[in-house]
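anyone seen this seq b4? input:
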Amino acid sequence: QVQLVESGGGSVQPGGSLRLSCAASGFTFSSFRMSWYRQAPGKERELVAIIYSDGGTTNYADSVKGRFTISRDNAKNTVYLQMNNLKPEDTAVYYCKVLSRPYWGQGTQVTVSS
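predicted toks r here
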């Protein structure tokens, strides 16, 4: 069955960095666009970044553009989210998702606080 397992979350001070990973299994990873979403307390889940199947095209929410980078390694069936210059408003549970399918990971908590 499809599995998406996120890791790399944690607590960091404003201006810090984190790298999230999402290990995928149970489907042909290299054929699908992948995405990262996040959900902050009391807010709706929002799309953060998308990466196309070959990694050649990426898209970002305006709120993270220039600070976050999505990438993938199709040989390792893994998608990444490099987050730099983190802000308190980036605090959320981050989820990876197969973009066109209802497959979600369990989420990883990111907390940005001084």
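The chain has a mean pLDDT of 97. The longest strand covers residues 18-25. kinda curious what u guys think
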